[in-house]
Write a structure and sequence with these properties.
With 203 residues, the chain is an alpha+beta fold. Helix content is 27%, strand content 33%. The strands form two sheets. Strands 1, 2, 3, 4, 5, 6, 7, 10 and 11 form a nine-stranded mixed β-sheet that branches. A two-stranded antiparallel ribbon has the order 8-9. The model has no long low-confidence stretch (mean pLDDT 95).
């Protein structure tokens, strides 16, 4: 409920905080889909997804957001943030995820997706038993160029190649709502990344 009550205002404050610190970003994942297909928050969504390129100093991002009243709740790291990072901030009951976008040695852009290791109950149990969590590498075409786009009654940053990204992530028919869509995380461009060390941390 907090997302649908406070989400637009909180997203606007997020947008202003990063713009004030000269940190480029885009709405991402389900929020990007909402921006393009619904011009707003998806009815079934429960948080806001955004993306920032990894060359941006995440400590600078944190300062900008904390100065605007956001609180860092948790974060994931891959090889101590050298290969992957994701953060969750909160304000007024609204969670905002930041997926840091990396570029590998072949120039392919990607973000990471995290999950408990098989046989554990949740992320906390995974950390207790194994000292790590599972991670998937999501190779998706992320442009560093953004455009301003309407999102309900505000404007936000959207990837200039949003159509290409959404097709890669949700399929060519992403503009048609699919009540049976299931995010399996097993698409050809999303795969288990076993050669790295991923951890989950809460504050």
């Amino acid at each position: 409920m907090a997302l649908h009550t406070n989400g637009i205002r909180v997203l606007q404050e997020f947008d202003k905080a990063l713009a004030g610190a000269n940190i480029p970003y885009s709405v991402y994942a389900g929020t990007l889909l909402g921006a393009i297909r619904e011009k707003g928050i998806l009815k079934h969504d429960f948080d806001i997804d955004t993306a920032v390129f990894a060359e941006q100093d995440y400590n600078k991002v944190r300062r900008a957001l904390e100065n605007s009243g956001f609180t860092l709740l948790r974060y994931f790291e891959v090889d101590n943030s050298k290969s992957g990072r994701e953060e969750t901030y909160c304000k007024d009951g609204v969670d905002i995820d930041i997926f840091y976008i990396y570029r590998d040695e072949n120039g392919i852009t990607y973000n990471c997706d995290f999950h408990p290791i098989q046989g554990t109950r949740d992320l906390y149990d995974s950390m207790r038993k194994h000292g790590r969590v599972g991670v998937r590498k999501c190779e998706l075409p992320v442009s560093q160029c953004v455009v301003r786009a309407p999102f309900e009654d505000i404007y936000v940053n959207v990837l200039v190649n949003a159509d290409e990204w959404l097709k890669a992530r949700y399929g060519v028919n992403y503009m048609v709502p699919d009540p049976n869509f299931k995010d399996t995380g097993r698409e050809k461009n999303i795969y288990e990344w076993t050669s790295v060390m991923a951890t989950f941390n809460t504050l």
